[in-house]
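Escalated from tier 1: magnesium ion holo job.
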Amino acid sequence: MTKKITVIRGDGIGPEIMDATLHVLEALGAGLSYEEVDAGLVALEKHGELLPQATLDSIRRNGVALKSPLTTPVGEGFSSINVALRRHFDLYANVRPAKSFPNTRSRFPSGVDLITVRENTEGAYIGEGQAISEDGEVATLTQKITRKGSERIVRYAFDLARATGRKKVTAVHKANILKTTSGLFLKVAREVATQYPEIEFNEMIVDNTCMQLVMRPEQFDIIVTTNLFGDIISDLCAGLVGGLGLAPGANIGKDAAIFEAVHGSAPDIAGKGIANPCALLLGAAQMLDHIGQPQNAERLRKAIIATLEARDSLTPDLGGTGTTMGFAKAIASRV
Ligand code: ATP
Ligand code: MG
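Tier 2 regenerated the structure:
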C-alpha cells in the first residue's frame, strides 16, 4: 500500500533539492505517492495567496508533508508562512537532529549524535504582552508556559527516545532565575520522567548546556526544552556538525507533521543546480521514521554517509564540484 505525502516544492533552490530528494526516495522504493501543492512565492503568483486553502487541505488529508524552503515576501501584511503553518496545525514539537558526518567542514567530524526537541507554540514566542512605553525607553514581553504544553513536549521527547532506542533525555531550563515559567517546565519534566524509568533523565541549566555542547557534545542524546532556548540551541547544534547544508528539521503535531531542511531558499545560488540536497534528504529520513519506515530511514542515512565518505559528487558547499542531481544520483546508487 502506498502512503500519500503532500509535497511542497517551494522557492529558490526548493524545486532543485526536492527533485533530488524525490529521486533518492524513488531509488529507496519507499512506496510513497505524492500530492504536489503550492506555497510561498510560487503560490502567490499562481493563486494570489501565500498559503492557499488547497495546500492546507492536502496537508490535513495526508497528515504528512515534505516541504522545501519558502520565501516570505518582505513588506507589510506578510507574516512568515512557516509560522502560519505551525499555528494552523498546532505543530508543537520542533525536532532537529544533529549528527556528525564525514568530510564536512565541522569541528566535530565524529561523536555528535543528538536530537533537540523544541517546544514550538508557547514560551517567549507567543507574541502577547509585548509593549514599549511611549517614550521608547521601556519594553516588556510576556512569556507563557503551561502544564499541558510542557507535558506534551516532554512526553514527545521520551516517546521519541523509546521509539528510536535512545538512552537519555536532558531537560534544559533556567529555573534558577526564571522561577515561574522555566520552573513549571522543569517540574513537569521531572514528573513525566518518572513514567519512563528505563530512560535516563537529567536536567541542565541553559547557559551550562551551551558550554557543555561546545566542549563535550557527545554527552547529549535527546535535549528537550522551551521555545526560545530550543531555537538557540538547535542552531548551535547545527553549527557543531557543519552547518546548514546538513541540518534537517521536523514540525510535528497531533494531526500533521511537516518535514523540511532548516536552511532557507538560498536565492544567491537558486537555479544553478549546485545546492546541497542533504538537509532535505535528512528531513525525508525523519519523515520515513515518522511514518513507520525506520529501516528505509536508516538505509537513506547510511547512503548519505557512504557518499560523503567517498567524496563522490559533493556539492561546492562541501568542497566538491558536483551538482545537486549528480550528488543525489551518487546517494541513490548506494541505497
Ligand atoms: P531565506 O530568505 O529563504 O531565508 P537566506 O539566503 O536568507 O534565504 P539561507 O537560504 O538559509 O538564507 O542561506 C544562507 C546561506 O547558506 C546562503 O549563502 C546560501 O547560499 C547557503 N545555503 C543555504 N542552503 C544551502 C544548500 N542547501 N546548499 C548550499 N548552500 C546553501
Ligand atoms: Mg534566511
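The pocket of adenosine-5'-triphosphate (ligand 1) is lined by residues 69, 71, 244-245, 263-269, 275-276, 279, 317 (CB under 6 Å).
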